[in-house]
Design brief:
single chain, globular, 8 helices, alpha+beta, kinase, kinase activity, transferase
Length: 180
């Protein structure tokens, strides 16, 4: 996993963008309006930008999807990739650029096979955090160096059965799309 992570984060790619670098649900704020049927999503904002970097947009998307989704999304991945690329292309057009020149869908799909592994690497740690029992959550990691953070995270009690199930589904999915 460490080798895969290092390869992905250090590789230069032809189609790059400014990335968030830590794109998972705890770094996303959602704004909802009340409706007759409950609530409606009206805005989304990314927060916590200290991991900003340049790289393939696939890295942020794979991290976000693989650290917080389920088999249903894996089974319909092509549909979600089309939605993402359409939105990305729309933003590029609004900025006066040609999306087919800057990041064509074919290049996006090629990068997905190559950089989806980054999302897998991040999911290994993030899923444990998400599945940590409430009483075992760390209050703060401020002031801890990397070795101490890793040591503290190894002590966490989490739902191991659900974690293993999600990791199996993720690995099976990555094999199915030939991304491992």
């Amino acid at each position: 996993v460490c080798r895969i992570f290092e390869e992905v984060v250090t590789e230069n790619c032809e189609y790059s963008a400014i990335l968030h670098g830590d794109c998972w649900s705890n770094n996303i704020m959602f704004k909802y309006d009340k409706t007759e049927n409950g609530k409606k999503l009206v805005d989304v904002r990314l927060i916590d930008w200290q991991g900003i970097k340049v790289g393939s947009p696939v890295c942020d998307l794979a991290y976000c999807l693989y650290s917080g989704t389920c088999k249903d999304v894996f089974d319909n991945l092509d549909e979600y990739l089309k939605i993402y690329h359409k939105s990305f292309s729309s933003s590029l057009k609004k900025l006066g650029s040609d999306p087919e020149k800057l990041f064509p869908f074919e290049a996006f799909k090629e990068q997905w096979k190559k950089f989806a592994k980054f999302g897998m690497c991040m999911a290994f740690g993030i899923l444990k955090v998400k599945m940590t029992h409430t009483n075992d959550c760390l209050d703060s990691m401020d002031g801890l160096d990397t070795d101490n953070i890793i040591a503290e995270m190894k002590k966490l009690k989490f739902n191991e059965d659900e974690f293993k199930k999600m990791i199996r589904e993720l690995l099976r999915h990555l094999c199915e799309i030939d991304a491992l």
